Structures are given as C-alpha cells and as structure tokens.
Amino acid sequence: LFFSRLIFGTLYPAYYSYKAVKSKDIKEYVKWMMYWIIFALFTTAETFTDIFLCWFPFYYELKIAFVAWLLSPYTKGSSLLYRKFVHPTLSSKEKEIDDCLVQAKDRSYDALVHFGKRGLNVAATAAVMAASKGQGALSERLRSFSMQDLSTIRGDSSNTVPPSVTVRTSSKQSQPKTSRSASEGTGSSGK
C-alpha cells in the first residue's frame, strides 16, 4: 500500500508536473498545481486520521482509492475539490491567513533570536567556568612550588625570600609557604 501511494500519489504526478513545466502548457500547470494543493491538504489531514481511523476496515485501501480518484483524468477529483471547496475557502480567508503567516514569521524570528542569545549566554558561561577551573588548577600548580624553588629557577639561589613576604595559600594549608621556604632556606644554608 505504501509503495502504490508513493508511486501513484507522488512520483506519477511529479513526473507529469515536470512534463507540464517542460512543455510550458498553462492548462497543465493549473491542473497539476490544483493536484498538489489538494494532495498537501490530504497529507496533512492524513497525519491526524491515521491516528484515529486506522482501525476502520479497509482504511488504507480507501486512501489509495481516494488518491486514484484525485489523479484520474475521468473524475478530475483534484480539480473538482479545488474548485468547489479549497479555492472559495482560501479566497475568503486569504487576508487572515496572510496576517497569521506574517505574525508567525515574526514570532519565529523573535524566538530564534531569543534562543540564540540564550545559547550564546550558556556557551559563554560554560567557557568562563572552564577557564576559571583551568586557572584554579594552574594557580594551585604554581603554589605547589616553594619560593626557594622559584629562586633557584631564576638562578639566584643565594637570595632568600624575606619572612615578611607572604603568599596566599589554599584553605588546606594554614602556614604561608614563603615563611616555610624562608626557614627551609636558612636551614639548608646552615648545613
């Protein structure tokens, strides 16, 4: 059933729509445009009817028969439905539909901008948090070096850090590192 609907409901009309475009026959254009409008409405309605009417006997076969009726050059189903129902309804409601589409377009643009800003804010917050965590790890790593180690890296091992200079330490350590390294420095020079 799916393949027959695919072939007869979509591919066959698509090919003949192509032929109408190629031949530039206005009458064929109009015929196939009416078909595609009706088919779009049918597909939309089918989304809901499939949920509620799939239990109905011969439901799928009736859908195939309906598509064949729409396509038939003898019944001209799509032209009949379009001229009797769709065109008059769309003509009378065209202004309201256009207004709704403009409002929906504006709302969707506003929503897109709003969610875009929120997404950028979330990304920026995540980047700042990652950077602060990375900075914290770097500062902890730097704090793990004693002042004596830093002075030997500079190549100035004879100078020791005065005891009045203090370096911030984490909450885990209560004694400033500079005081400890200064006392270590004097203890090592006494050896």
TrEMBL record:
InterPro entries: TB2_DP1_HVA22. Its main location: membrane. Residues 153-191 are annotated as: Disordered. GO terms for molecular function: microtubule binding; olfactory receptor binding. GO terms for cellular component: cytoplasmic microtubule; endoplasmic reticulum membrane; endoplasmic reticulum tubular network. It is a multi-pass membrane protein. It is found in: Membrane. One of its GO terms (biological process) is endoplasmic reticulum tubular network organization. The chain crosses the membrane at residues 32-58. Keywords: Membrane, Receptor, Transmembrane, Transmembrane helix. Belongs to the DP1 family. PANTHER family: HVA22-LIKE PROTEINS (PTHR12300), RECEPTOR EXPRESSION-ENHANCING PROTEIN 1 (PTHR12300:SF33). This is Receptor expression-enhancing protein. It comes from Tauraco erythrolophus.
